[in-house]
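Input (structure):
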């Protein structure tokens, strides 16, 4: 491992929550009547192709001026601040299939969908299935538990809100570049700790050719920048595996400090998330979190988000350490989600 670069990382990715909160117009886009008309037309075109959602590509979802807007948002995701919020998709007047096709089609203009779990789901559902988050084989998106700040296994993660919870379930994000810079200034010794690999569980979502755990550093210095990948719950659950080394006191201290920085109101941004909102984040520079929530009693009213993990051919450069023993690469060399060999990609319309 190279010697620690003592200089903080600059650029638009190093933002502070209170600062960007005051400039919401820079990262929030409200769909216009024309945008919605274009999206509805593209949904009809895509459905006329009579293909499974997972087989739909950009050419099946033609857009006019909204395609130009998406191109600008994409540039900001991949080389700017790394997040945006698109408001106003009329999910209340769309069927589940139409909403899924609309979200998927918008995603095809941003990147290539990769699998989000061992079932090959390229269209994910964030919904409480009544599962226990403490179970090492369960994922947080299947529960109503609070999700600490973390990253996912793709260049971009996208969420579409179909329904909100009765209480809670609020979204927060934080710049992992800012977390790195803050830690570098106050505790450079802990930055060094998080540049060493952490063992994380694969939640049983891995082929027989790979171990049930993975080693990857949280902070990865590369090309004068820092790329972060961090899921502390996966680190904690990996400790249930006897073959995984025990977490050291220094590692716990470093992760505690990392979490405290991410949770600081001085750093993070709280973002309201309403029906029809689409949030897109660059996983390399942005960590995301969710508060716990209380759901509605009626099944049809329960909190429900659709999710995409997208690989981008022209995404940010990242070091080999992030993929050599991690999730692997797409054919174009981008982070490949959770891909179990032999499992076909599919896009279910219901949570499962």
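Output (sequence):
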């Amino acid at each position: 491992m190279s010697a620690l670069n003592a200089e903080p990382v600059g650029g638009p990715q190093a933002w502070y929550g209170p600062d960007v909160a005051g400039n919401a117009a820079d990262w929030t886009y409200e769909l216009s009547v024309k945008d919605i008309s274009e999206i509805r037309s593209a949904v009809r075109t895509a459905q006329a192709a009579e293909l499974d959602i997972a087989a739909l590509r950009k050419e099946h979802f033609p857009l006019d001026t909204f395609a130009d807007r998406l191109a600008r948002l994409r540039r900001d995701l991949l080389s700017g601040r790394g997040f945006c919020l698109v408001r106003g998709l009329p999910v209340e007047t769309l069927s589940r299939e139409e909403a899924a096709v609309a979200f998927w089609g918008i995603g095809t203009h941003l990147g290539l969908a990769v699998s989000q779990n061992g079932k090959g789901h390229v269209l994910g559902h964030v919904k409480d299935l009544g599962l226990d988050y403490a179970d090492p084989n369960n994922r947080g998106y299947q529960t109503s538990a609070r999700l600490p700040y973390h990253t996912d296994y793709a260049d971009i993660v996208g969420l579409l809100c179909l329904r909100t919870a009765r209480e809670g379930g609020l979204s927060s994000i934080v710049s992992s570049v800012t977390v790195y810079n803050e830690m570098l200034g106050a505790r450079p010794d802990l930055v060094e700790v998080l540049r060493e690999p952490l063992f994380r569980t694969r939640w049983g979502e891995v082929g027989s050719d790979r171990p049930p755990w993975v080693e990857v550093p949280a902070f990865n210095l590369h090309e004068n920048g820092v790329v972060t990948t961090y899921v502390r719950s996966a680190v904690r659950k990996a400790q249930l595996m006897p073959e995984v080394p025990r977490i050291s006191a220094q590692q716990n201290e470093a992760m505690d400090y990392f979490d405290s920085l991410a949770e600081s109101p001085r750093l993070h941004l709280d973002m309201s998330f309403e029906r029809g909102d689409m949030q897109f984040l660059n996983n390399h520079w942005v960590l995301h979190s969710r508060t716990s929530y209380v759901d509605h009693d009626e099944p049809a009213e329960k909190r429900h988000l659709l999710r995409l993990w997208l690989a981008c051919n022209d995404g940010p450069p990242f070091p080999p350490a992030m993929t050599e023993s991690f999730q692997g690469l797409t054919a174009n060399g981008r982070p490949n989600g959770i891909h179990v060999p032999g499992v076909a990609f599919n896009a279910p319309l219901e949570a499962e």
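Notes: The chain has nine helices and 17 strands. The two ends are 41 Å apart (CA to CA).
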